[in-house]
Amino acid sequence: MLFFMLLLIAALCVSLFFMPDNKVIMIVLIGVVGTLLCFVIYFFRNPTREIIIDDTNFVIAPADGRVVAVEPVMENDYFHEQRMQVSIFMSPFNVHANWFPVEGEVLLSEHQKGRHQGAWLPKSSTENERSAVVIKAHNGQTILVRQIAGALARRIVTYAKAGDKAHLNQHLGFIKLGSRVDMYLPMDAEIYVVGGEPVVGNETVVARLSSDKSHEPTIQ
Fold it and tell me: Which residues contact 27 (CB under 8 A, 6 or more apart)?
């Protein structure tokens, strides 16, 4: 964020230096640069949120946005089995910080290069640039959280590393500009959200994991 702010301020200073006598242009430039600066500050906002739950099987929304998919899919990258996919699309006006959805341990964290199609498209889950974080929850079940870049997003920041402890109220990462977060939950998870529903990161309960871990797959 600091880089963008310095760039905008530098652009304003250069413009004022070369056109000091044209007040109309000066006012327009100040207005444009000021608006862009305010948007940058607004976009990179990172609110402090805390949630207290009495059931460690609850799955909390990892991001702000709108649910665009709740469906069973075949997850072939890590689990190689059918999983329940819950996808959240973040517009440029949503908070773009991402939180851990469950308490547990990070088993895997890796980044994959890819395309930059619209993040609302279903194929963006497997074709776009993305980062994957696999978490083993306290009940022994594993979930996959996938950060996906969109048409405008060009950088995914993932704080989670293999071996880290996953904690609610703690940031998993950050995605810049319009993007998406997918979660792949066990098929026996109880889902509480539907397509089109707005959710708030680290606040909305989206699902509940089962206590049955007898069919947990090996990550490959």
Answer: none
The catalytic position among 15, 91, 179, 214 is: 179
Residue 89 lies in a domain: yes
Nearest to 101, CA basis, from 132, 56, 66, 44:
56
Around Cβ 61, how many Cβ atoms within 10 Å? 26
Could you tell me if 23 and 62 lie in one domain?
A: no
Identify whether residues 99 and 204 lie together within a single domain.
yes
Tell me if 216 is assigned to some domain: no
Closest CA to 206 of 216, 220, 219, 195: 195
| Tokens 């709740």 -> residue | 70
64 and 164 within one domain:
yes
Contact 98, 63 (CB under 8 A): yes
Q: What is the number of structural domains in the chain?
A: 2
Going across the sheet that includes 198-199, the strands are: 165-166, 104-112, 130-137, 142-149, 179-185, 81-90, 65-75, 198-199
Q: List, for residues 81-116, the tens digit of each pLDDT value.
A: 999 999 999 887 888 899 999 999 999 999 887 655
Query: Rounded CA gap, 88 and 142, in Å?
Result: 19
One-letter amino acid for residue 98 of the chain? N
> What range defines the domain where residue 8 resides?
2-43
Q: 105-114, pLDDT tens digit by residue? A: 999 999 887 6
Residue 124 is a catalytic residue: no
